[in-house]
Amino acid sequence: MTYQTAISTDRALWPALRRGFRRKCPNCGNGPLLKSYLKVRDTCTVCREDFSHNRADDGPAYLTILIVGHLMAPLLHIAFVQFRPEPLVLFTIFAIGTITLSLYLLPRLKGAIVAFQWARLMHGFGGGN
């Protein structure tokens, strides 16, 4: 298979990523992609798309750490320099914020990574390899 053939058989990336981020099936956009907090369904309940060969592994965790760290570190610096809150108050606010943002992003990024793999026909999603 040539590079040009591989590109032409790819699926639409951005709609798939949006659907995956919403934790929906990247194929139909209706069925739930996850059956629990982070467990990917083997098949879509609506369109029967097979997700059993996804390989999200540690990708969602790395992306979550990257995003949360890049958001919270500058905010922590700004809050400390501008407002000088008590250390316990600062810790409490940023600990709750970091945990909340991490718990919100983790399943959504997992859905987006599975959708990316589906859109780019990676790891068996293409039906060939």
What secondary-structure arrangement, pairings included, does this model have?
Blueprint: H1 3-9, H2 13-21, H3 59-83, H4 87-119
Organism: Roseovarius gaetbuli
InterPro entries: DUF983
Transmembrane segments: 61-82, 88-106
Tally of separate helices: 4
Give the overall shape, derived from the CA principal axes. elongated
Our estimate of the beta-strand percent is under 5%
Helix percent band? 55-70%
Can you summarize the main beta sheet?
none
Average pLDDT works out at: 92
Q: Care to count the β-strands? A: 0
Beginning-to-end CA distance, first to last residue = 11 Å
Q: What value does the Rg take, in angstroms? A: 19 Å
Topology order in helix (H) and strand (E) letters: HHHH
Q: What are the segments in which pLDDT stays under 50 over at least 5 consecutive residues?
A: none
Question: How many structural domains?
Answer: 1
Q: Indicate the structural class.
A: mainly alpha
Keywords: Membrane, Transmembrane, Transmembrane helix
Protein name: Zinc-finger protein
Transmembrane segments: 61-82, 88-106
Pfam families: DUF983
